[in-house]
Amino acid sequence: MDTRFFGQPWPLWHIFGVEMWERFSFYGMQGILLLYMYYSVEQGGLGIDQATATGIVGAYGGTVYLCTILGAWLADRLFGSERVLFWSAFVIMAGHIALAVLPNVWGLGVGLILVAVGSGGLKANATAVVGTLYRAGDTRRDAGFSLFYLGINLGAFLGPLVTGFLQTNYGFHWGFGAAAVGMAIGLIQYSFGRKELPKSASVVANPLPRNRYGAVIGIALAGIAVIVALVLLGVIRADNLAGVVIIVTLVAAIAYFFVIISSRQISSDDRSRVTGFIPLFIVNVGFWSLYQQQFTVLTIYSDERLNRNILGWEMPVSWINSINPVFVIILSGVFAAIWTKLGPRQPSAPVKFALGAIIMGIAFLLFLPWANGAPNSTPLLAIVGILLVFTIAEMFISPPGLSVTTKLAPERFHTQMVALYFLSVALGTSIAGWLAQFYDPKNEVPYFTILGFIAIGLGVALWLSVKPVLALMRGVR
After folding, report:
1. Which member of 158, 286, 343, 389 lies 3.0 to 4.6 Å from 363 by CB, making a disulfide possible if both were Cys?
2. Are 138 and 129 in contact (CB under 8 A)?
3. By three-state DSSP, how is residue 2 classified?
4. 352 and 445: one domain?
5. Residue 225 lies in a domain
6. pLDDT at 320 over 90
């Protein structure tokens, strides 16, 4: 048995590395992206209206999760997970290079499209490749995924620190360049380790028949042509991009639910369980629409309201994005131990989702004591405390999310149910960008109050509905 990487198979190190560097580049870029858009040209930015800029960030984040569905389809039908992962990393690196070297909004557009498509492809397949390293019954599997999760958060912690330092001292394009270098390091490491992966990592699970290649290529080209036409006609614009992604994601989610629930290939128990997933889907959307404002409203808040002065030195704005990954690394182990200790006595999935939404709403209400304050009036420790509450909410709803999704999934629609979960994250992320246009730094109380109580209301509604939801879930907790 191969135990060379902390008791795990050695190839895990290569996937750990490429995922860590991908998260380094992703969160590093995201930490300075909004600032780059709304800072003035004199400050090195693009001078885009703040409300439009937050909408673009939300649309971009939602598109990343939408692209996980494309990445999974390409792996299942055409290329296999390992190849899609490898080439997705190249696409991500190209996107960061575009942001670093191409000027103005063209560089922004090309860069964000490439990073979104590449990140979706890599995110969809990295987990699948890790799974191929373990045989059925291998007790190391959970520990291996924990190590993999550590790599994700290590990259998320380091990325904003490096890019924020470079942006503050040398300019935005140096920060984007560092993200590209980080992805290049991950690619080089992974390139040497690819040959050590099991053959099952490259298997195409459900090959697309050759006679359908032409139809698929035609549909893809037609889809691209429609998008280009809508952009040229002014139907899709920078200022309504978040709304467009919200509508597309919502239509896709409704279609997925309809296809699965109306299928004659599933049992009545399966149909009931998918119906029971709907309340969890709605609450998950609500949670992510607040949680993902770390990259929109919290960035603006940190830039304009937060006292980032530490002993005469001003901390870069993007460093705020490195706080949450530290708490995730610490608390993921704590929560795993708690759930293991409780065993069958642990809260059911609907209760965990309800608690996650309620705690997330409380986190937004915690902004109120410092609302409408003067510039640099909010203490740094206050934001650290609020982000701790963000992370506690995340522990209740994010790790159990995919787990309960796979438990509720009918055997014939396993992949589609996972896609539905990612659609809920995509929808929430897009809404986070759309909501940010209503944030007014001069009048913050209504914003934090209304959204906080909406999240609490969603959580309470689910909690009061736990019994009927569990009845629909037919034995799944």
Report:
1. 389
2. no
3. coil
4. yes
5. no
6. yes
